[in-house]
Amino acid sequence: MARKRTLLLLIVYGFAATLTIFYGLVEKHSVIVTFFSFHVLVCICIPVIHGWWEGDLRKHWRLAWGSFEWQGTLYGLAFGVLMLTGGLAGLWLLLQEAGRPEVVRTGMEAWGIERRWIWAFSFYLVFINSLLEELFWRGFVLQRLRASLSRLMSIFLASFFYSLYHLIISTILFGLRNGLLITAMVFGAGMIWGWMKGMFPSIYPNWFSHLLADLGLALAVILWIY
After folding, report:
1. Are 136 and 18 a contacting pair, CB within 8 Å?
2. Residue partners of 172: CB distance under 8 A and separation at least 6
3. In 170-201, which positions are buried (b, 16+ CB within 10 angstroms) versus exposed (e)?
4. Residue 199 in 3-state DSSP?
5. Other C-beta atoms lying within 10 Å of the C-beta of residue 100
6. Which residues contact 196 (CB under 8 A, 6 or more apart)?
7. Distance CA 220, CA 95 (A)
8. Nearest 5°: CA angle at 187, between 184 and 193?
9. I want to staple 84 with a disulfide (CB 3.0 to 4.6 A). Which of 7, 124, 212, 221 is the partner?
10. Three-class SS string for 100-158?
11. Within a 10 A sphere around the Cβ of 111, how many other Cβ atoms?
């Protein structure tokens, strides 16, 4: 019964993440509201409150981080370089459509991402967003899904919810067809990071890989959109 309750809560958390992105970007048109509601309320508060409810917050926090080790880190960096390269190539192709860079920039500016803040936004996206997403999806959600589901199903479910809110972002900026394609790629990245988390329990391989993937996005924004 306790496992079923935890599984249900995790599914609720997954939908909550998407709802915060929808609320921040679609309802409030504010990247600040989005970052606060998603990163603070979901990525930080939910794991802390859930861990406190479980009764051993410190233990679960240590498990989410793990210990630094070189083999996994090298795997993470290698996958990260591939994702950075693939992300840059894919976005370059998408932005070849006439008027697409201007449409994307207009959409981002409507969220409050102005040219003068683009470097601060990029730094936050690359270093903070990547860390908090990995701690939440692979360090918190995936870890608890494994207590109730098979490894493959746990990775699939965590990746599904991880990619779900990317559908909102990518569809607004690139249209439905391209949004679905981008979301499928994000889902694939989530599956890879879920597999890596099983191979290398430390947060660092996934974080470095995710960091480089987000760096590709930030570079595309700086070079071709702004």
Report:
1. no
2. 25, 26, 107, 179
3. bbbbbeeebbeebbebbbebbbbbbbbbeebb
4. helix
5. 18
6. 72, 75, 76, 79, 205, 206, 209
7. 9
8. 145
9. 212
10. HHHHHHHHHHHCCCCHHHHHHHHHHHHHHHHHHHHHHHHHHHHHHHCCCCCHHHHHHHH
11. 21
Q: Cα(52)–Cα(70) distance, rounded to whole angstroms?
A: 31
What's the token pair of residue 42? 């979901």
Per-residue pLDDT in tens (0 to 9) along the chain, 226 residues: 567 788 888 999 999 999 999 999 999 999 999 999 999 999 999 999 998 888 877 887 887 888 898 999 999 999 999 999 999 999 999 999 999 999 999 999 999 999 999 999 999 999 999 999 999 999 999 999 998 899 999 999 999 999 999 999 999 999 999 999 999 999 999 999 999 999 999 999 999 999 999 999 999 999 999 9
Token code pair at residue 153: 């199903």
Could you give the angle at the alpha carbon of 88 between the alpha carbons of 208 and 18, nearest 5°?
65
